[in-house]
Amino acid sequence: MNFRVPRGTVDLMPGEVEKWQYIEEKAREWCRRYHFSEVRTPLFEQTELFRRGVGETTDIVEKEMYTFEDRGGRSLTLRPEGTAGVVRSFVEKKVYGDPQPTKWYYIGPMYRYERPQAGRQRQFHQFGVEVFGTEDPLTDAEVIDLGFQFYRSLGLDGVQVELNSVGCHRCRPLFREKLVAYLTPRREELCKDCQSRMERNPMRILDCKNETCQAITAEAPRMVDHLCDDCESHFAAVKKGLDELQVPFVLNTRLVRGLDYYTQTAFEYIVEGVSGSLGGGGRYNGLVQDVGGPDMPGIGFGIGLERVLLALELQEVELPLSIEVDCFLATIGEEAQQRSLSLLQALRQAGCSVERDALGRKMKGQLKAADRMNARLVAILGDEELQNNQVVVKELATGVQETIQLDKLVEYVRDKRMHG
Q1: Binding site for L-histidine: what residues are annotated?
Q2: Domain total of the chain
Q3: Residue 283 belongs to a domain
Q4: Which among 84, 298, 319, 381 has the fewest CB atoms less than 10 Å away?
């Protein structure tokens, strides 16, 4: 039987994994600069957490979750997004009792049963941040700026933020009434999903990608025109903060995001030359309470790393990856092979990436192997060199070689590694 990788998943092979490591380290570095700490939550949670946290009317809960029963009959779901699990951890560990705000980030795989396509898989990876315990609108601006700086640091051009306010529990009911009144006469023209949303969550209709639905809602009432005084002043402060940070943004009054927990600020990152968003987020001031905690505000974002890699590929951005070997140790004779082990160990302890021949190849084959793995240097050790306590070191890029004392090899390779 021939086994194949499951549909919607991929094997990340050497040569590709290094790109992932690079962008993940960029994410961690920017989180460090903004004083975020990493949190790691389980890959699966109680199904009810996502039903309550993400929302019963979302496509994620209705169509895309991987849900199963364990041997104890408990319903569990592979996490389809990161925020609900992080909020659950925040509440369960009673972190809300600590001095606030709490600033966490996460990087890891998520799971949704959707149609695989470029940049979207059924197992995908997300980098996300969450801030709990503050309603400060300038925190919204800082969070948006963090994601913006992350994209920029990878070399992506044309990064822009689409911004909207989706109001709160005070101003949204009135807007909902006006929206339903506007849509009701044309209800039968809406797609089936949007017809269902009319009763449960009509704001989601504004986010529908169906062209007919988009045309119907083109002149629909706008949430930004119906904000209460608190939401209006909060939104104005967020925009002013983004101006201060010089983060480019445009108002997108149709933007409501695909999750039910958002309040006030909602945003997405779009990048030149890439269809759809690369990530997004917003405020969720009621979510902590919905999950069983106190009434405490929160804001965050989630960025799909597959989408980031797709954008880098489409913009032909070359990441500065270093996957070469600092030194390949080529040996002639059994005594040299034996001695090479302690030399390799010393070089590795000094922080150098080194390799040796493990197939018993002749010198020509060893040099070819060194060239295939992009070795910077080849150190050649044979019986004659051992007798003289020397080693021949050759720089593959230039062909220049020299003979040095064997006890100077570690220092020599380390110096080449650091200074070229």
Answers
A1: 81-83, 112, 126, 130, 257, 261-262
A2: 2
A3: yes
A4: 319
